[in-house]
Write a structure and sequence with these properties.
By secondary structure, the chain is α+β, with helices and mostly antiparallel strands. It has helices at residues 47-64, 85-95, and strands at 2-5, 20-23, 26-32, 72-79, 102-107, 117-124. The protein contains 2 helices and 6 strands. A 6-stranded mixed sheet has the order 1-2-3-6-4-5, with helices on one face. Helix 2 (85-95) links the parallel strand 4 and strand 5 (102-107).
Length: 125
Amino acid sequence: MKKIINTPDAPKAIGPYSQAVEANGMLFISGQIPLDPATGKFVDGGITEQTDQVIKNIGAILTAAGLKFSDVVKSTCLLSDMDNFAAMNAVYGKYYPENPPARAAYAVVKLPLGAMVEIETIAVR
């Protein structure tokens, strides 16, 4: 049985998808981009600020599901430019200081709404 997770503390979906879906004790969080949930607009700044907002959005969804960052087992980071990898990684590492999840990072041609970073996440109860 699947359960849809939705919170006003993270951006509304901008397409036909859910913020997250829980099934069999696993939480699948859709790719998050740096939208401020209060304004629906991108946060000001560059890759550092965008990554921080993306991970705050992930944190809000985790909280809504009753989970935390230590429950995350896998992340996929999509970047508009691999030159931003080190800065993204520095912010990402602050949220996973111990026993970080498995992760992949890719550069892609384009991200939704011109974002510099998008991160999708899987967590387990």
